[in-house]
Amino acid sequence: MDLPDRRPRLPALTSLRFFAAFHVVMFHLYTMHILEGGGFYRKLASVGYVGVSLFFVLSGFILVYTYAGREWTKGEFWRARFARIYPAYLFSLVITGPSFFYVCIKLKDMDIPFFAWFKTHLAVCATLVPLLLQAWLPNAALAWNAPAWSLSVEAFFYIVFPLLVGWLLRSRRNTLAWVALASWLVSFALSSGYWLFKPDGVAHTDDQFLNLVWLNALKFNPLARLPEFVIGMCVGFLFLRSAVDRKWATPLLLGGVLVFVAIVTVSPQIPYPILHDSALAPAFAAIIFGLASRPGWISFLEVRPLVLLGDASYTLYLLHSFILSAYFSPFGQLRHISFWGIAIGLCIPIVVSLLVYRWIEEPARRKLRPKKATPAQVLAE
Fold first, then answer.
1. With contact defined as beta carbons under 8 Å apart, do 18 and 316 qualify?
2. Does 35 fall in a domain?
3. Are 256 and 283 in contact (CB under 8 A)?
């Protein structure tokens, strides 16, 4: 079946990226014990790590939407992807590197559990992180700039995308639905298997366990996160092949949001490994499909300020943890936890991300992308 050639930009999905990144920001404020309160608000912040799962599903969807059925070569695709992610990634390493290496070298005798493995394997970390390979080694995944682990995973997705897209392009709609379901079941089986068999020997895990080998492999290894990307790809093809009939847009969008709210509400009762990797992927897929269909009532997500924040969300995601730590907890001492202090602390990484996007990320991307960029490559940015 031919895919439609006309594919307009989907600004609501760009705005969605900002909310996903901000959810991760909320999570790190929660882990720093800065966000106080209870009820749904606290539960929402405590599961902010699921924003990365949304990124993975959205990445598969967007790449299919922009590249599937169009002419491009693997070299052009990989160069465009490199131009998209590496300039801001490298900038984040330059910014966060001095503090990371200072702790590992100058403070190597201090007992800081999070840095223990990094200190004894500093050369490995210094090699893997710039090469986007850290997620393949469980204990190295959070080295240097912790949020950057997901870019190591994305780099793997980009490598296998040209292979997967050709296979899925030849698949029927029913097959695509079954592949998406099977991918979710694989992800659920992996996380459930960890919870049931406890390979690290720990009865109960949560977001505070950062040095468990098998848990880190489940959370960070690119192969373990590939099912979420494949789900997004399948949903992308299903979306392109249902261009005429979008009557399910609002039910899917609202259904996905309701499932998200329900799972957040009962999140304390859901095993951490399952919640971290697999629980919400179907809900995110439904939300993405619904927003991409652009029902009229979601036009508020297409306003320019929100779309601009979505454009800058990649840099916000990469730099927020470092900025929040420097502002709220320099030298391990909490400060600025009044209402206005927290408000300023939230504004700083957002403003920095907008500036980096405007003056570093965008110019570098234009410089590095293929000279004769295809419409797909431009749209994918």
1. yes
2. yes
3. yes
Round to whole Å and give the CA distance between 358 and 311.
Answer: 10
pLDDT in tens, 241-255: 886 457 788 999 999
3-state secondary structure of 342: helix
273-291 in b/e form (b: 16+ CB < 10 A) is: bbbbbbbbbbbbbbbbbbb
pLDDT-derived band at 292, boundaries 50, 70, 90 = very high
Q: Which domain holds residue 30?
A: 11-380
DSSP letter assigned to residue 172 = -
Total residue count of the chain as it appears in this document: 381
Interatomic CA distance for residues 41 and 324, integer angstroms = 20
Cα distance between residue 156 and residue 40, in whole Å: 35
How far, CA to CA in Å, does 137 sit from each of 6, 134, 187, 213, 221? 41, 6, 19, 9, 8
d(CA 193, CA 185): 12
- Taking phi first (over 0 means left), then psi (-120 to 50 degrees means alpha), and beta for anything else, what does residue 201 get? left
Is residue 2 one of the residues assigned to a domain?
no
The dihedral formed by the CA atoms of 326, 330, 332 and 333, expressed in degrees to the nearest 10? -120
Is position 157 within any domain? yes
Tokens of 154: 């994305």
For residues 123 and 252, give the distance between their C-alpha atoms in angstroms, rounded to a whole number.
48
Tokens, residue 32: 């720093």
Which DSSP state fits 298? G
In a domain, 298, yes or no: yes
Q: Count of domains in the chain?
A: 1
Q: At what angle do helices 222-240 and 213-220 cross, to 10 degrees?
A: 20
- Rg over CA atoms, the chain: 20
Q: Report how far residue 85's alpha carbon sits from residue 350's, in angstroms, rounded to the nearest whole number.
A: 18
What pLDDT, in 10s, does the model give residues 32-57? 888 766 788 889 999 999 999 999 99
Q: Rounded distance, CA 185 to CA 233, Å?
A: 16
Report the distance separating Cα 21 and Cα 52, nearest Å: 8
Can you say how many angstroms the Cα of residue 140 is from the centroid of all Cα atoms in its chain?
18
